[in-house]
UniProtKB/TrEMBL annotation:
InterPro entries: ABCF_ATPase, P-loop_NTPase. Gene3D superfamilies: P-loop containing nucleotide triphosphate hydrolases (3.40.50.300). This is ABC superfamily ATP binding cassette transporter. SUPFAM superfamilies: P-loop containing nucleoside triphosphate hydrolases.
């Protein structure tokens, strides 16, 4: 499914030793439980993220600084 593919792509990108991630709508098609797990991983890893996301709750849960265009 599209959700499973997205989860794999997010897991692979977060497993890399990068400090900057550029994502476009990373949570499309992902179930609620997986979204929560992804939020926890991001909060622990504290990477720099540049992303487009319409899920305001997700954004508010993981960011410490936001720049809106």
């Amino acid at each position: 499914s599209d959700g499973q593919k997205k989860k794999v792509l997010i897991a692979v990108s977060l497993s890399k030793p990068a400090h900057l991630f550029v994502w476009d709508e990373p949570l499309n098609y992902i179930d609620v439980i997986s979204r929560i797990q992804i939020e926890e991983i991001i909060r622990e890893a504290k990477p720099t993220l540049i992303f487009v996301e319409h899920d305001k709750r997700f954004v508010e849960n993981i960011i410490n600084k936001i720049i809106q265009l």
